[in-house]
Amino acid sequence: MPDYSQDEVAEVCTALAAEAPALWAVLVREAQAPASVTKADYDDCYDALLTWLFERRYVDTHIEMAMLFKAVRGRAGGA
User: Fold this and answer.
1) Residue 72 pLDDT greater than 70, yes or no
2) Is the pLDDT of residue 33 over 70?
3) Distance from first CA to last CA of the chain, Å, rounded?
4) CA distance 79 to 29
5) Residue 68 in contact with residue 50, Cβ under 8 Å?
6) Phi-psi bin for 57: left (phi > 0), alpha (psi -120 to 50), beta?
7) Closest CA to 49 of 32, 74, 73, 78
8) Alpha-carbon Rg of the chain, whole angstroms?
9) pTM
10) Given CA atoms 62, 79, 17, 12 in this order, what sign does their dihedral have?
11) Nearest 5°: phi and psi at 28?
12) d(CA 18, CA 26)
């Protein structure tokens, strides 16, 4: 199972906030106030984030996607 360092997660979060601020905002809002984002909006954000991660070659597999998404979401909670 892939393991991402704090520096790698920080790099992704910084890039996401700069390149896709709307996605970052949804993650931060949901992480800081659970259930504040509708399920449909959260699902759309999740799908868009996975595409964003894959297109920028941060991830290559579904396992990597899930692990990095979890780490980014955790980091968003402390943004």
Assistant:
1) yes
2) yes
3) 26
4) 10
5) no
6) left
7) 73
8) 12
9) 0.82
10) negative
11) -65, -45
12) 14
For residue 78, the 8-state DSSP code is T
- Give the residue-averaged pLDDT of 13-19: 95
- Cβ-based neighbours of 17, under 8 Å, separated by 6 or more: 24
Residue 43, number of CB atoms within 10 A of its CB? 11
Q: Position of tokens 């704090």?
A: 6
**Cβ-based neighbour number of residue 44 at 10 Å:** 14
Query: Tokens 């992704």 map to which residue?
Result: 12
**Closest to 79 in 3D by CA, of 35, 34, 25, 36:** 25
Give the 3-state secondary structure of residue 37. coil
